Amino acid sequence: MQRKQFGLHDVVQMKKAHPCGTNAWKVIRMGMDIRIKCTGCDHSVMIPRLEFERKMKKVLIHAEGEPEA
Which range of residues forms the domain containing residue 50? Predict the structure, then answer.
């Protein structure tokens, strides 16, 4: 299975919505763990990369200046 492509400062859609009502998150840190920030209420969460890739649905907005693969 091919790994999902995402980059720093991309806005991604997660499978489940956040309690504030939105399911769009901005990637603010990448590494073995991914830190994402809710675009609705600015709450941030750090989760392991494999769990993030499993729960991510798709990239909504690619960051400016990032080359597409």
Answer: 11-61
